Amino acid sequence: MDFGTIELTPEQQEFADEVRSFLDALVTPDVLEHERAHGDGFNERVHLALGSRGWLTPQWSPEDGGAGLDPLRRRILELELQRHRVPDITAGTTNLVWTAVDRFADPSLRDELAPRVADGTARFCLGYTDPEGGSDIAASRLRAVRDGDEWVLNGAKMFTTGAQNCQYTFLIARTDPELPKHKGLTMFLVPLAAPGVEIQAIRTFGGERTNAVYYGDVRISDRYRLGGVNDGWAVLHGPLDEEHSVGTASDGLADPSVGRSFLRPLEVALDETLAWARETGPDGSRPVDDPSVVARLARVAVELEAGVVTPGPMGRVKGSLAIVEGAAELLDLTGAVGLLSPGADGALGDGDVDFAHRWAQGTATYGGTVEVFRTIIAQHVLGLPRAGYPGSKVLM
Ligand SMILES: Cc1cc2nc3c(=O)[nH]c(=O)nc-3n(C[C@H](O)[C@H](O)[C@H](O)COP(=O)(O)OP(=O)(O)OC[C@H]3O[C@@H](n4cnc5c(N)ncnc54)[C@H](O)[C@@H]3O)c2cc1C
Q1: Radius of gyration of the chain (CA)
Q2: Would you place residue 330 in the very low, low, confident or very high pLDDT band (cuts 50, 70, 90)?
Q3: Residue closest to 303 by CA, chosen among 329, 332, 338, 339
Q4: 264: how many CB neighbours lie within 10 A of its CB?
Q5: Matching CATH number, 124-243, of 2.160.10.10, 3.60.20.10, 3.40.50.300, 2.40.110.10
Q6: Is the pTM of this model over 0.85?
Q7: Ligand 1, atom nearest to 135 Cα
Q8: Does ligand 1 lie within 6 Å of residue 89's CB atom?
Q9: Ligand 1, residues 159, 371, 373: which to mutate, most atoms within 8 A of Cβ?
């Protein structure tokens, strides 16, 4: 990993300034307040405005609706989007799914969707998790039965995050229950406006919005099948490996791992705790005068930095552990003021320690649990055989 500073040319600096002032005007306080209150991971006004600049698909050519940005400008854009805290869950899932649509969709569907992905009017969510399948995606039970040129879908998916703001879900369905479980699956891009689709909101302890989605006799054209019948595992592989940071080459500019994004609330909470520790209390002393407080804060800072720079699947595990343990430590240090939620009188910062602590818990689960990632590390990084966990479900 190269930790060298990149010197921007005047043109690159000009681009950075342009992005910054565009986002300063676009990401108004109500965008951030709405995200805190609803946990959507999406803001339509912001998403469409980014699409109008070609910045949802910045690597695509302007003729295709992108901005034709080179890798360094793309990184500048990405960092500014992060710094401005642009809600990005739905933009992320749309990008993940697009790689499969681009490769496996009927060409007419691909051509119809490409400009809409670029301008932000077509958005995709992930319909992997069954109510009972959980980590074992290949155990998916939602049924798709062929009827002439259509498919009839029946079943349910849990945790389809962003479904309320998307036009399509990237759905894994069982098309042949007689075949071995990885072989009887097919992927579809299901229009969420189809009759029989019902989206029910679920709010997490961390304030995120996700959904249970029910499919009752939903009929879709065969046009929405991605890849071959019963060949769904091959279609899913690309987006899944990308989400799991397995086998994806880095250009040296990207975040080292998805774990980096988990740590932003911890950075805010640590800054707030440092400010609290420097304040003089009613007895005339400051928390920072106690060496054990300094040592505990320093440990959180070190773990945070380790999470920020650890690459690949290890970074996903380290990022989650650093925020789960770090936020608990900050809560323990700050006591009552840290426990107060956003908006409460007397809360530390804007309830940032409480928020980081609640938000941290989901990071150990979504996109694959920490335990499952340890198996991925064992197999894909260390080349070890699959581990067995007594009493656990087995990923085949
Ligand atoms: C906020 C949130 C958003 C989500 N968004 C989406 C989404 O957009 N789309 C989507 O499809 N899914 C989504 N998920 C689902 C998420 O990917 C699953 O929750 C996750 O994969 C675990 O499945 P489960 O909750 O059923 O747990 P289970 O798989 O039932 O696991 C229960 C426990 O057993 C452990 N375990 C399971 N299998 C193994 C194994 N092989 N080895 C060791 N331990 C194991 C787990 O680590 C866990 O501790 C989301 C979940 C959350 C909480």
Answers
A1: 22
A2: very high
A3: 329
A4: 16
A5: 2.40.110.10
A6: yes
A7: 29
A8: no
A9: 159
